[in-house]
Amino acid sequence: AKLPEDAHIVHSCSTGYGEALLKAALKLDDGEVETVAHYYAAAFFDPKVDCILDIGGQDSKVIRLDENGAVANFVMNDKCAAGTGKFLEITSNKLDSDIYNIDELAKGAEPENISSMCTVFAESEIVSLLARDVCKKKIAAGIIKSISNKGVSLLNKSKIVDDIAFTGGLANISELVKMLEKDLNKNIFISDEAQIIGALGAAIIGYK
């Protein structure tokens, strides 16, 4: 409905959790699982990429590729919202902040230890730290550090390779990127369009 009247759709492709439903409902040409869509987009921006860390609103996962570009290994978070955008959203709210401002709040601070990856237990930890007058900046850095730890854990399970692309909305959190690069001792490739990289991958698939 939003397309110009003279626009002509040559090919269409859906991806994401509702990929099959959307394809059927709108009679699209193609549908592709998000892991493959993310790879297509990451490889488009950086052909050397052979490992993708994707941290979105609902899950976090690692996709490792072989020399032919096929998926060699796939690891996904196994505990509810642990290490995801939802985890960051809920915990940052406890600091009277939000997911858009938490990066600036945490900037340059020494991370306070947040030991639990369970969102409910992490909330309790944060409330306890605030009651002890621990600096909000340190708690914010601790929240981001806990997400970094989860990402590194997933990467280790997948057998880290050389060229890692970080995709998903949390790739926009610069403090998280710094922590990941420091913990991994690697530079991480991040597209300017990291948050919509799945959609870009679907567009590339459709274009092909």
Largest sheet: 5 strands, mixed
Following the backbone from N to C, one meets helices and strands in this order, namely EHEHEEEHHHHEHEH
How many β-strand runs?
Answer: 7
Report the sheet-strand fraction.
5-15%
Helix content: 40-55%
Q: What is the compact description of this entry?
A:
This protein has helices spanning 19-26, 34-45, 85-93, 102-106, 119-131, 136-157, 174-184, 197-207, and strands at residues 13-15, 30-32, 51-55, 60-65, 71-76, 164-167, 188-189.
Blueprint of the fold:
Blueprint: E1 13-15, H1 19-26, E2 30-32, H2 34-45, E3 51-55, E4 60-65, E5 71-76, H3 85-93, H4 102-106, H5 119-131, H6 136-157, E6 164-167, H7 174-184, E7 188-189, H8 197-207
Task: Give short descriptive properties of this protein.
208 residues, alpha/beta, 5-stranded mixed sheet, 8 helices, 44% helix, 14% strand
